[in-house]
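Hi P.,

Sorry for the delay on this. The queue was packed all week, but I finally got your sequence through. Input first:
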Amino acid sequence: MSGTDTPHGGWRPAFRGWRARRPFWGGLLLTLGGGWILLTEKASLKVVIHVGMQGVAGYLLPVVMVVCGLLALFSPSQRLFYSIVGILCSLGSWVTSNLGGFFVGLALGAVGSCMIFGWLPDQEPRVSRRKRRKAAPADAQGFGDGAGEPA
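Then the structure:
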């Protein structure tokens, strides 16, 4: 035994189960968008302090985007609030942070926020193509008996 208590053995199935219970891709995109905007900021701290609130907002909005993306991943019950704050910060970064990280961070944040907003927690996880193919021959066997004959 490997010492893990996962029923299917290994960390990949456990991670897939964790990922299926939260808006994973939306949270990841929102976090990456905020990180990208932070990386493209070129103003030093002295300039930010000198400029004032406009300069502080250039760093504050992407930090809030990163925090909202991480909170959507680790606390999916409040996803609607995080997605609304995330999209507002993404759109606000257009003005405050080099055109939203040269459009890349803005687009990642907007798409991620929309994916978080649209995620439904009570949906069944998607069945992989491999599992559907295995189940298809079993379903097709009962279909051929008397098919096409009038009742």
